[in-house]
Amino acid sequence: MVSLQIWMLIVGFSVPMIISPGPGNTILATAGGRFGVRGTVPFWFGFEAANFVWCLVYGFGLSRLMHEVPAAAHVLKWAGIAYTLYLAYGFVKPSKPGKKASMPRLSALDGFLSVSLNPKIHSMIFVLFSQFLRPDVPLMQQVVQIAFVFTLLCIVCHFPWIYGGQVVFDRFNSEKSAKVQGYLFGGCMAAVALFLAVTV
């Protein structure tokens, strides 16, 4: 079993990394602002499912591959930037004349892809498993427990971003304000893509 001291270190590492502003939280707040908490649930489910899956993948060996093949991280970075720009376009693309501007609700697959193509999340999970796995505890037990706890922390830390997005933009429901929101949210996504391009 993972020791209490290691759990405290894992929580101390994970919570600030998860709750701090970044590409994932920007996307969650944007979705919350556009679709509300209820409308964001499928996207959020896919988002957290991806966190759990990637914890398992890294815990059982991808950490070694990413360390040995740096080009894999580079490919992941640019795929993530392209997908973020695709999301940005979805928020600002013009609708057909006479129809209210709207973006289709983000799906669980969109949530899964947004995590899978986010280099920051991969870096976080890579560090999580490279620092906190212990040779004296069975690997299967550690990886599953850490993946479960990390995902639970993600759910708790991501909710305020989604709810905050809803609260801030809930008052603006007219067609004109929806269009402004589309440009604002699309701009946020484009800024995230730029941030990823120059920093990660």
- The SSE order reads HHHHHHH
The level of helicity is over 70%
Domain count: 1
How can the largest sheet be summarized?
Answer: none
> Would you tell me the overall average pLDDT?
81
Structural class: mainly alpha
Strands, total number? 0
Separation, N- and C-terminal Cα atoms: 34 Å
Strand content: under 5%
Q: Number of helix segments?
A: 7
Tell me about this structure.
The protein has 200 residues and is mostly helical. The protein has one domain. Helix content is 82%, strand content 0%. Helix 1 runs parallel beside helix 6 (139-169) and helix 3 (70-92) runs antiparallel to helix 7 (175-199). 36% of the residues are buried. Residues 97-101 have low confidence and may be disordered. Keywords: Cell membrane, Membrane, Transmembrane, Transmembrane helix.
Based on the model shown, name its key terms:
single chain; 200 residues; mainly alpha; globular; membrane
Compact description:
The chain has 200 residues and is mostly helical. 82% of the residues lie in helices and 0% in strands.
How do the strands and helices of this protein lay out in sequence?
Blueprint: H1 4-19, H2 23-68, H3 70-92, H4 108-116, H5 119-132, H6 139-169, H7 175-199
